[in-house]
Amino acid sequence: MRSITKTPMARQFTLLSQRRLISTARVNRNTTPKQPEEKKPQPISPHAAFYKDFGTPLVKVLGVTFVTYYGLQYLWEYLDSQEPEEHPNIQPINVKNDD
Hints:
- Residues 26-45 are annotated as: Disordered.
- This protein is mainly alpha-helical.
- The protein has a domain at 54-86.
- The chain is 56% helix and 0% strand.
- It contains two helices and no strands.
- The protein has helices at 8-21, 46-86.
- The longest helix has 41 residues, at 46-86.
- The relative contact order is 0.04.
C-alpha cells in the first residue's frame, strides 16, 4: 500500500488556510465603547403642538357632529316619505299669506 504524503505545495496551502482562521486584528480592550451623542430635541412648532394636543378631540367632535347631522337628515327624509302612505285621505294644507 502506498502512503499518502503531502507535497510541499499542498503543505503550504494547508498552512495558509489554517492561518486564515486565526484573526490578526488587534483589539484594544482598555477602551470603553463609544456612547452615542445625545441629540438636543428640536423645538415643536406651535401649529404642530396645537394639533398634537387637540387633534384627537377635534376629530371625535367632528365625527359625532357629522353622524348626528346626517342621521337626523335621513330620519327626516324617511319620516317625510312615510307620511302620505299612513294617511292617504288627508290632503296637506297650503297656508299662503296674501297681504
